[in-house]
Amino acid sequence: MSDTASYQSGFGNGFETEALPGALPVGRNSPQRCAYGLYAEQISGSPFTAPRASNQRSWLYRIRPTVAHWGDFRPADAGLWRTAPCTEIRVPPAPMRWDPIPIPEASVTFLQGVRTITTAGDAGAQGGMATHVYVATQSMVDAYFYNADGEMLFVPQHGTLRLRTEFGVIDIAPGEVAVIPRGVKFCVELPAGPARGYLCENYGSAFTLPERGPIGANCLANPRDFLTPVAAYEDRDADCRLTVKWGGALWETDLDHSPLDVVAWHGNYAPYKYDLRRFSPVGPLLFDHADPSIFTTLTSPSETPGTANIDFVIFPERWAVAENTFRPPWYHMNIMSEFMGLIYGVYDGKTGGGFTPGGFSLHNSMLPHGPDRDAFEGASNAALKPHKLDGTLAFMFETRFPQHVTAYAAGIAQRQAAYGTYGSALLKRFDPHKP
Fold first, then answer.
1. Residue 2 pLDDT
2. How many Å separate Cα 212 from the centre of its chain?
């Protein structure tokens, strides 16, 4: 497999790519004999009878079919990885926030470094999600993984990742994201040292682009900016290990060859990456503060129109120009639950400190939240000139399900115990004699 990541452009397109000339059959998906002695295999991310617009599948032409990568599976240690439904501990109904989880000095691979923060819904019912933080100091060597429970959205915050997948190589750094569909085999390497980031495990329908509605044909995330890898393969016979997440548990088996052996593929079910700095934001140009849904980058729809299983929302650099308006997010209670992370910079709704890059917060379903005192006072008294929010990138995983905090997340030292009462610092300002 090449050490260079190469890509093709577009979201949800019917891609085709081959690492050897003629490896892709012409005019048929499963010929009697594939070129180069390859095996044809289909991977489907949707039911066969799903409507054409939502039907996802790819044909892979590989050295060995996946069934040949199978052995006797044994239980593997899941560490701090948890799967919904999971109610390990009850916490009081209040906002929660954490400092960044330190990157350990010990040798830790990506699989060993996943720490679940919240779970929501039910993986077995294919609805909901889990939020994780990953920390890693060592590349996966002769070790591969795939997740049968959900697709995985990687959001790096520190360090770069090289995702070697069946479909090709993807490199991502802070400011970029990558999605690995369920069932796709990969390994995680660290080309530039230790890494930390956020991970959304989506149990529901695959992430797609949101509808733009009255916005029209342009802005938000544009399909051409999503990149899918070109074919690359490993033809390597060596002892290695395959770990599978299935049914909320980890299982592993030994192999004598690499499972990343896809020489060519075509279809629309594939991993991809996206540079969040290419997001084209829209916003209020005269007055009032628009709903954060205008920053939706990817969405996992539910069976209820207009209600997302998950929305992936970002808060990037942008201009604030609204007149006679409280510009930061208002105080609110929301039926959706919100997990937020900060990749870099300062989030405009929390300028009073405590929300630092690598940190994260949880504002659960129907719990009150909004700007801290410093953000409120600053925004209430600022001269409302056009102002650019520079050098900032925050994000939110928002879901219709309540999020259950894991025992690990509730008990670590990075949890800010006093955060749930930050609203008590807001002053009483009411004066019936001063309209």
1. 67
2. 21
- Catalytic-labelled residue, pool 132, 289, 332, 433: 289
Residue count of the chain, please give it: 435
Q: Which residues contact 350 (CB under 8 A, 6 or more apart)?
A: 371, 372, 375
* CA gap 261, 67 in Å, rounded: 13
pLDDT at 12: 84
pTM for this structure?
0.95
375, 353 Cβ separation under 8 angstroms = no
- Look at residues 111, 75, 79 and name the one whose alpha carbon lies nearest to residue 252: 75
Lowest mean pLDDT among 98-102, 341-345, 356-360, 365-369: 365-369
Q: Can you name the residues that pair with 131 across neighbouring β-strands?
A: 118, 200
pLDDT of residue 81: 98
How would residue 1 be classed by pLDDT, with cut points 50, 70 and 90?
confident
Q: Say how far apart CA 386 and CA 389 lie, in whole Å.
A: 10
Q: In this structure, how many other beta carbons lie within 10 angstroms of the beta carbon of residue 80?
A: 17
Cis upstream peptide for 93 (omega within 30°): no
Rounded CA separation 19/261 (Å): 11
Whether 132 is catalytic: no
SS3 407: helix
For 150-162, what is each residue's pLDDT tens digit?
A: 999 999 999 999 9
Per-residue burial over 247-262, b if 16 or more Cβ lie within 10 Å, else e, is: ebebbbeebebbbbbb
Identify the CA nearest to 314 among candidates 390, 394, 198: 394
**Domains of the chain by start residue, with CATH:** 7-276 (2.60.120.10), 279-416 (2.60.120.10)
DSSP letter at 332 equals B
* Arithmetic mean of pLDDT, 223-247: 96
Residues sharing a CB contact under 8 Å with residue 81, sequence separation 6 or more, in sequence order = 114, 115, 116, 132, 245, 250
CA dihedral 74, 76, 81, 83 (to 10 degrees): 10
pLDDT in tens, 317-335: 999 999 999 888 889 999 9
**In angstroms, how far is the first alpha carbon of the chain from the final one?**
70
- In sequence order, what are the residues at sequence separation of 6 or more whose Cβ sits closer than 8 angstroms to the Cβ of residue 285? 321, 322
Does 13 score more than 90 pLDDT? no
